[in-house]
Amino acid sequence: MAASIQLNVRSIKAPFNLTPVPKQCPKPSRISCAAAAATPTKRYSITLLPGDGIGPEIIFVTKNVLKLAGSLEGIEFSFQEMPMGGAALDLTGVPLPEETLSAAKKADAILLGAIGGYKWDKNEKHLKPETGLLQLREGLKVFANLRPATVLPQLVDSSTLKKDVAEGVDLMVVRELTGGIYFGKPRGFGINEKGEDIGFNTEVYATHEIARKRRGQLCSVDKANVLEASMLWRKRVTAIASEYPDVELSHMYVDNAAMQLVRYPKQFDTIVTNNIFGDILSDEASMITGSIGMLPSASLGESGPGLFEPIHGSAPDIAGQDKANPLATILSAAMLLKYGLGEENAAKRIENAVLDTLNRGFRTGDIYSAGNKLVGCKEMGEEVLKSVDSPVLAAI
Ligand code: IPM
Ligand code: MG
Is the CB of 311 under 6 A from ligand 1? Predict the structure, then answer.
């Protein structure tokens, strides 16, 4: 399972690290820029896993953004679309077909939309779309999940928190992704001594699975006042931190962290935590930023391709209606370029394009506020494409 990980806190300030993108065109127009694009010198293969619900819509839009940003930096992508989640269940009877996993392993990076939906909710566990996602993470050994939550000035009014609390929040949740209660054994259903049905899971961590630390301010979140697995977590984090005197380490219980996130979120720089606490806290952190529809993620292992996905789900209630916010997936593509392929310039083009599109007032329903232009998923994608093509440094 997960191995230890070393990350530099300062180097994971994704996704809004703004430096000017060189202008390709004096008078921006998509056509002239495309013509000016360098002959591709680098080629990467990307496995696309559109999945379910809004997945196919957001992946369609993001693929075009990735293609254009790449072409302007001399990068050519080959895309291979594979079934996953409910779509794969309908097609093949399993949520993660072997062909999908092996294609993903061979790719340079993987971009996932979302999985799940009402249709498969009652399936047995091994036939749930979510099981496919866990199998994918495990199969790719991507144990470190980076979930940045940055409050953009353009969207500060979309936050459910007061402006002065939300303004300037820029934090990163680093979630352990292939261990803990999600994978621990024993697990299952049974009957207790009173004859009642029971369901049980095991929170278990081995020392090698506990994330190693970096520089900067690091807050390790656990439940070490109650759980043995958390006691080991804290011990291990503390031991490793002594090797990194430049890391300012603090510890916080998860219940307190949940409260502090809405009380004074600016106190956090990087939070490192286990699988289930990271799942919960990253959803909470996302709302500080205005919408879960804005937040990307990167899942990385020690080697092999990374998996990049928005942290939101498949939103079956709005699927197929062209209402989804594609920005979390587009920003996941920027993380793919930055962390997966080391293509910083192309990543910056996308980050800047998203900011520029917001500056120009385009909003999907989840981030809409009066005075802006309400657009659907496709139109938002088209506007981002225009901004990729005519890079201006979008001031945060
Ligand atoms: C997430 C999701 C998944 C998780 C589900 C869909 C299995 O909530 O990526 O945060 O719990 O990890
Ligand atoms: Mg989640």
Answer: yes
Indicate if 306 and 380 belong to the same structural domain. Answer: yes
**What are the start-end ranges of the E strands in 196-291?**
197-200, 216-222, 247-253, 270-273
* Last residue in a domain, options 269, 290, 311: 290
Neighbours of ion ligand 2 (CB under 5 A): 279
- Cβ–Cβ < 8 Å for 143, 183: no
Query: Is 283 in the active site?
Result: yes
pLDDT tens over the chain, length 396 residues: 333 334 343 334 434 433 334 434 433 333 334 445 556 689 999 999 999 999 999 999 999 999 999 999 999 999 999 999 999 999 999 999 999 999 999 999 999 999 999 999 999 999 999 999 999 999 999 999 999 999 999 999 889 999 999 999 999 999 999 999 999 999 999 999 999 999 999 998 877 676 543 337 899 999 999 999 999 999 999 998 888 888 899 999 999 999 999 999 999 999 999 999 999 999 999 989 988 999 999 999 999 999 999 999 999 999 999 999 999 999 999 999 999 999 999 999 999 999 999 999 999 999 999 999 999 999 999 999 999 987 665 544
> Are the C-beta atoms of 355 and 394 separated by less than 8 Å?
yes
* Residue 368 domain boundaries: 41-147+291-395
76 and 195 together in one domain: no
